[in-house]
Amino acid sequence: MSETKSKGKGLNRRELLGGTAKLVTLAGVAGASGAAGLAGGAFLQPSAGLAATPNKTHVAPGELDEYYVFFSSGQTGEVRVVGCPSMRELMRIPVFNRCSATGWGLTNESRKILTENMLPETKAFLQSRGGVWLNGDLHHPHISFTDGTYDGRYLFVNDKANTRVARIRLDVMKCDKVIELPNQNTVHGLRLQKYPRTGYVFCNGEFEVPVPNDGQILDEPEKYTAIFTAIDGDTMRIAWQVRVDGNLDNVDADYQGKYCFSTCYNSEKGMTLADMSSSEQDWIVIFNLKRIEEAVAKGDFEEINGVPVIDGRKGSPYTRYVPIPNSPHGINTAPDGIHVVVNGKLSPTVTVFDVRRLDDLFDDKIEPREIVVAEPELGLGPLHTAFDGRGNAYTTLFIDSQICKWSIEKAIRAFNGENVDPIIQKLDVHYQPGHNHTSMGQTKEADGRWLLSLNKFSKDRFLNVGPLKPENDQLIDISGDEMKIVHDGPSFAEPHDAIIVHRSKVNPVSIWDRNDPMWEDARRQAEADGVDLDWGADVIRDGNKVRVYMHSVAPTFSLDKFTVKQGDEVTIYVTNMDDVEDLTHGFTLVNYGIAMEVAPQATASVTFIADRPGVHWYYCQWFCHAMHMEMRGRMLVEPRSV
Amino acid sequence: MSETKSKGKGLNRRELLGGTAKLVTLAGVAGASGAAGLAGGAFLQPSAGLAATPNKTHVAPGELDEYYVFFSSGQTGEVRVVGCPSMRELMRIPVFNRCSATGWGLTNESRKILTENMLPETKAFLQSRGGVWLNGDLHHPHISFTDGTYDGRYLFVNDKANTRVARIRLDVMKCDKVIELPNQNTVHGLRLQKYPRTGYVFCNGEFEVPVPNDGQILDEPEKYTAIFTAIDGDTMRIAWQVRVDGNLDNVDADYQGKYCFSTCYNSEKGMTLADMSSSEQDWIVIFNLKRIEEAVAKGDFEEINGVPVIDGRKGSPYTRYVPIPNSPHGINTAPDGIHVVVNGKLSPTVTVFDVRRLDDLFDDKIEPREIVVAEPELGLGPLHTAFDGRGNAYTTLFIDSQICKWSIEKAIRAFNGENVDPIIQKLDVHYQPGHNHTSMGQTKEADGRWLLSLNKFSKDRFLNVGPLKPENDQLIDISGDEMKIVHDGPSFAEPHDAIIVHRSKVNPVSIWDRNDPMWEDARRQAEADGVDLDWGADVIRDGNKVRVYMHSVAPTFSLDKFTVKQGDEVTIYVTNMDDVEDLTHGFTLVNYGIAMEVAPQATASVTFIADRPGVHWYYCQWFCHAMHMEMRGRMLVEPRSV
Asked: Between chains, do B215 and A106 touch, taking CB under 8 Å as contact?
């Protein structure tokens, strides 16, 4: 899975063209901060020299975008893959949602992924509700790192609605693991260990709840707790949890692999709006990874629901609490590997601290606020900050509806008493920005070319589509001295967060490997049934269980009919034996609520009770051939009475 | 609902600007065929004169698109609203899918719509499956007509997967009716009565099935039948059905309100691919609306599952069967109101017939093939034809991966023996086009500006996103003499079909009317409970049923907590009392699988069993305010043991 190689099969038109469509090596893209330049990946480029020219805002028909944008979709529950700068949606990856097209949430393969790391209590709860969640609130997508930059292996995302974290394999752009986090209610902020590699997936439990949350403890806030979780990204098991004070919000990590840090917007531990925002200061919590690992090793934890939970509340050796004004929201590590910006939300300031001072902080050589090196006042509602690798920071001002570009160095000088204004430019955006992102800006290879402002309101910026409006993701050219808006991008509920990744970092396959672990269970069952899964055209009866094996080669399924009895538990395996790029088939069973995607060389399966007698057609729903309409067959369900 | 008026509340920035952003009257857009011009609607236009200038392919930030495109999404099950020419997705309207963001399929309001016209047999089938379908295959979106052009009231769509038709209210861009069609298996082609108004929604039952389909009849093809259905679009009840010979595919209607016509690709009544394509000729079926209405009036039908089913098989007075080579697929009425193009699919020809000859055909004065006035050979795999209102037709050639532009008049002259080539231009598209569409081209007001080619494969046209690729919707400028591709648009599975509608035709509201029928049940229940639904902050216990009424005003819910007992049936009503454009709230109940959209001035509700004890936070998932993160409250579920 970690080897993302193009398979040699099925050369496409672009590869055959040669010439301008050749593989070229990326050069001259990395920003000033990315000392190493972008790690030597090769990428497809329609015309030589694109990367070296000034920002191009139009992507002509047939040209490729230069960047992938991985978008969260908020409450839609999916991941969206978008091309930049065209801002076209290239793909949706279902994760926490139920997908009608691909059968995500219905196929045996997806249900295994969705349920295998579910807590027993949740399994019981969902038993009468179809067995899987049908919604999610996907907030923060981040790609795995090696040595401070993206390595293209995995994308990790969180679900605030039902307290889960999922992993997406970037070789096939499908989710392969989902884990439910115990002991916490919601998971909000999610970021990754950047060095030496991911490694840890850091997750903030946002809402405080009683532990155990069994309904015995209700109105006693002092018995509520918030939890911080580190997942092992390789195994997708929980490494450890830390009990903290206050509501956690967003999180980030350093470039040294020693610390991570979370904002806390509710140090008051309030349960109502008024209580939550009563103090003028809240804090960040800094986690010392080495000390926590040692605590786990030596057993200084309480095991709750099978997970080691370390006490990291105020006064513990594992954490430090640094006061920050006021209800801080976003936290962003600069690509210089030194500075971290904490965004004040209810304070007009951002607070900059220096990670080089954290050792001393944990060794109690300095006071918490001594890590702070700047605290510029930028405007109303600072939420998130992005970086261009040239020493500039770009902060979203939610209430002002602006992006503020400012100089980190000047902010530090001003904090040290010099009379200098760190603010370089303020740009109106439309309207009310939340997260923002620069191209490669969350790595040490920030290249300072594009900025994306994810605005929460679009109001009048698009044709009216009724009471529910899209959000507005604005693309801003930051390659010159001035920020310039070049594109308004409407977005269904809700973009929330994104990363802009150079295309050299991601290298998916076009055709599945027949040995892929995704359908391991199908492979094993076929073997037990003595069936060739690849070329199956078999119906195996096993008591009242019937297993139907078929393959597809456009425009036919290998079975044009099969018969089962009413009440049988039927499993249908479909293998797509077409070995041609983009030749996806589908399998839809009419009036049975069944539909699934079967991409080239993949196997997909579904199990259901055949409790509706009659003739039921199945058909291919992915247009595949001139005779696509004729690609169908019949399931005959004999009634019980026969 | 039929009055689509802008509400006076909440003037937006664009309306306040005046000057270039004023309401201007549309002029000079209608094509040659649209004698009346576009009906006098007024529309918002960012700079005067846009409509009169040549096609503009770039829509700058803040500018509005000139057209709405209503896209089907195929197996994704939703409707997509896209702006043209920018081709940005402006909104998704969930219809046959389960939507994580809006709660479509979960809220009481949506479940009522999804189930109220469900057949009892399907209700029983779904009882153990959550009560509603979670997938659909939405193929053909069409807007209601008055006098041959769009009237902006409704959009109608079909579900091939689970045999349904749905209606979307264009004032609020939400689905308000879904009906399941009895006696048939799948519904494929869907088009509307164009004159005097819609009126009828015509639906092809594609797959033949035994009637009744109870599993007693299996391998006796002669007992299978295909059904054509007309729905009354105002009541969303079935008006009548017609039993026909052969598998129906696509359908269209005339501009006179007298006839509609369906293609049949399987006149062989084959059950396998080989059988379905064995003959060189298939047919279209023409339906005589007046005769059918008379038959219904006089009782010449069989009532099956509560629906009058007329026998329209070969030889009946209600239909005519006209031979067409070979497995014809799309059927498209030209904006001249005279010519209809039938696309040959397995034949390289399209067949043009003249609707003025249909009276004589039904009066047996002419032979079926005498309605044909042209049959040009265009290329391989003709699937669908669009029109520019200047006498030209644009046919997709699936196998050739081309659009063929041709002259209807020249094709007729060639058919009459003149040595003239009707083909004007062939344009490569990328790759394998299915449906295509011209701006306003499915009305008498075809304006000849844009053509959209919905291509089934994108292969190498976009950054690689893994084995599943997007489709590719290409936008083509047809305003000049030559077709020019100006945009490649990736599209998630699968665009399938679309209409391009001038923005003057659609005029949604931005804020719900508090008297909207959508939440009639909530209104009635609140009244019975003595609760003010608008400003509710009440918990009503009624045995083990608990009704929780709350309203939202950013950033608070009117209840910051409420208590229920384990096992209670809880209904939560949320009313969004913010009266501000774009200020949508959400309601998500953590670890309960509950999330719903509540747009400005709307009420939404959900009912569930509170069988999971503990403290469960609910929060607003539509970013609404600087203090959005704090917009939350707690549901306390007391355990049974307390």
From this structure: no
Nearest CA in chain B to A630: B273
pLDDT single digits (tens) B259-304: 999 999 888 888 888 888 888 899 999 999 999 999 999 999 999 9
Output the six-digit token pair for B479.
């305003």
At B277 the pLDDT is 82
Neighbours of B551 (CB within 10 A): 23
Q: Does A10 touch chain B (CB under 8 A)?
A: no
Supply φ then ψ for residue A518, to 5 degrees: -55, -40
Which amino acid, A111? R
B114 in reach of chain A (CB within 8 A): no
Q: Nearest-CA residue of chain A relative to B513?
A: A467
Nearest to B591 among A87, A163, A591 (CB): A163
What distance in Å separates the CA atoms of residue A374 and residue B589, rounded to the nearest whole number?
39
Q: How far is CA B523 from CA B172, B518, B570, B597, in A?
A: 19, 10, 17, 18
Transcribe A258-325 into DSSP letters.
Answer: SEEEEEEEETT--SSHHHHT-SSEEEEEEEEHHHHHHHHHHT-SEEETTEEEEE-STT-TTEEEEEEE
pLDDT score of A502: 98
DSSP three-state, residue B378 = coil
Strand partners, A304: A307
Q: What average pLDDT is seen over chain A?
A: 91
A16 Cα to chain B: minimum distance (Å)? 11
CB distance A638–B218 less than 8 Å?
A: yes
Is residue B436 helix, strand or coil? strand
pLDDT digits (tens, 9 = 90+) for A558-573: 999 999 999 999 999 9
Contacts of A468 in chain B (CB under 8 A): 91, 102, 173, 584, 597, 599
Predicted local distance difference test score (pLDDT) of residue A267: 85
A368 interfacial to chain B (CB closer than 8 Å): no
DSSP track, B278-329: -SSEEEEEEEEHHHHHHHHHHT-SEEETTEEEEE-STT-TTEEEEEEESS--
The predicted pLDDT at position A436 comes to 98
Instruction: Report pLDDT for A53.
Output: 54
Task: Give the neighbor-by-neighbor strand order of the sheet with B149-159.
Answer: B142-146, B149-159, B164-169, B174-180
Contact B467 A88 (CB under 8 A): no
Q: How far is Cα B320 from Cα B300, in angstroms, rounded to an integer?
A: 18
| B489: chain A residues, CB-CB within 8 Å | 88
Alpha-carbon dihedral B103, B107, B113, B114, rounded to 10 degrees: 70
For residue B612, the chain A residues in CB contact (below 8 A) are: 121, 125
CA distances from B169 to A282, A468, B166, B172 (A): 47, 13, 10, 6
In residues, how long is chain A?
A: 642
| Residue B207 Cα, gap to closest chain A Cα (Å) | 7
The CA-atom distances, in angstroms, between A616 and each of A408, A417, B115, B334 are: 66, 78, 21, 36
Q: What is the pairing mode between strands B247-253 and B237-244?
A: unpaired
What would the two tokens of residue A168 be? 């997406």
What whole-number distance in Å separates Cα of residue A219 and Cα of residue B496? 54
Least confident of A24-28, B157-161, B638-642: A24-28
Q: Which of A218, A468, A586 sits opposite B615 (nearest CB)?
A: A218
- For residue B365, the distance in angstroms to the closest alpha carbon of chain A comes to 35
Residue B53 is predicted with a pLDDT of 54
Per-residue pLDDT of B452-497, as tens digits, reads 999 999 999 999 999 999 999 999 999 999 999 999 999 999 878 9
Q: Mean pLDDT across the stretch B20-32?
A: 33
Contacts of B600 in chain A (CB under 8 A): 467
**DSSP per-residue string spanning B18-36:** -GGGSEEE--S-S-TT-TT
Chain A residues 321-360 within an 8 A CB cutoff of chain B: 329, 345-346
